[in-house]
Design goal:
Elements (H helix, E strand, L loop, with lengths): L2 E3 H9 L4 E6 L2 E7 L3 H4 L12 E9 L2 E11 L2 E4 L6 H10 L1
Antiparallel strand pairs: 1-5, 2-3, 3-4, 4-5, 5-6
Length: 97
């Protein structure tokens, strides 16, 4: 599943401060700010550490969004992600939002 209702998806991401959403024409770009390595490991380090950012590009088709591209960025380097890896997440949003 790489298609989800526009309203359900927007309700889900707008209710979570870890997501940023930008709409341009028929496209919605979602940015998810992952915790730093220190935050994820509960380290007491004062250093901010490297944060990865996951970005998704979805195309609006009628009242649905179609996932068209996904990537992770860290320290200015961009790596593509498999769209298949987001199927379970989109199903969760569809079922519980």
């Amino acid at each position: 599943m790489r298609v989800i209702g526009y309203e359900k998806f927007m309700r889900f991401v707008s209710s979570n401060p870890s997501y940023e959403v930008h709409e341009t024409g028929d496209f919605v770009e979602v940015t998810f700010h992952t915790p730093s390595i220190e935050e994820a490991s509960s380290s007491m380090s004062d250093e901010e550490g490297s944060r990865a950012v996951i970005k998704l590009l979805l195309k609006k088709v009628g009242d649905e969004l179609v996932l068209s591209e996904a990537w992770v960025e860290r320290e200015g380097v961009r790596h593509p992600l498999s769209l298949d890896s987001f199927d379970t997440w989109l199903e969760f949003i569809d079922m519980y939002s």
